[in-house]
Amino acid sequence: MSLWLTFVLIFFALTFVLMLWVFIKTRTSKKFSSGDQKYIKSHWSRIVNGDDLKHSVMDADKLLDYALKAKGFEGSLGEKLKLAGPRFSDLNGIWSAHKLRNRIAHEMGDISKGDGERALKSFRRALHDLGAKL
Fold it and tell me: Taking the CB of residue 129, how many other CB atoms lie within 10 A of it?
């Protein structure tokens, strides 16, 4: 009986590991379609060539949201970031950039050039981490 139970447990453990591997592989291997890639690249070019840093940060946040949706993530950008977190090399930087976007959207006032540039760098890195070729 003990040997039988051991085999059953090993079978279920191996099945679970295999299913987990397939799930992770399918979530991480989805590439952008050529249309999505063109859209991301052209919008990123407009963002970095814009004159208004606040507007650029807002647009970069929207572009990251678009990219995550194209990768199959659903919900608000915050929910998408939570789900996609392990894919990013600097998740804290992305959260800081998103929080700066929220501050711009909900408060009056200016942002420093350094804060804006850091946010854009974080958004660029996030898009790169997702597979966008910028």
Answer: 16
